[in-house]
Write a structure and sequence with these properties.
It is built from three helices and four strands. The protein is α+β, with helices and mostly antiparallel strands.
């Protein structure tokens, strides 16, 4: 029997995570605050693995402009979800600013009580494209 799952909580969790994960200023305090904030989203193993993704002496700043969720699908068990999302961010290097948009896939585990955790670091994936489908 097919069951409809409300994934709005998973979507909100991933949006909040992505805003934290892809935002930082080029100073030690901002990077430390980002690292601390990520403990509320990532498993302990992922915290260790991603600890050096943004170093305290980073030369650029990043701010998230938009996050778009493309899909939320059950992944294995009914408590695990694969989420595909786009992050549009502005990357500043002093006076130079660039906008970048990338599509990522991550995995979320949702406990029976509704608590969630990211179980897979975001990885680049392809952006959904226009289907070649034509109705008959």
């Amino acid at each position: 029997e097919r069951r409809v799952e409300d994934t709005s909580g998973v979507e909100a969790f991933v949006r909040n995570f992505a805003k934290t994960y892809y935002s930082w200023s080029n100073n030690k305090d901002s990077v430390a605050q980002r690292t601390d904030a990520l403990t509320g989203y990532l498993t302990e193993d992922l915290q260790r693995l991603t600890a050096d993704t943004v170093k305290s002496d980073v030369a650029v700043s990043s701010s998230v402009q938009d996050i778009q969720i493309w899909s939320v699908e059950q992944n294995g068990s009914e408590n695990d979800f694969a989420v595909v999302f786009t992050v549009t961010q502005t990357i500043s290097d002093g006076k130079k600013k660039d906008t970048a948009s990338s599509v990522y896939k991550t995995a979320v585990h949702k406990d029976d009580n509704g608590d969630m955790v990211i179980t897979q670091a975001p990885t680049i994936t392809g952006k959904p494209a226009k289907s070649a489908y034509t109705p008959t």
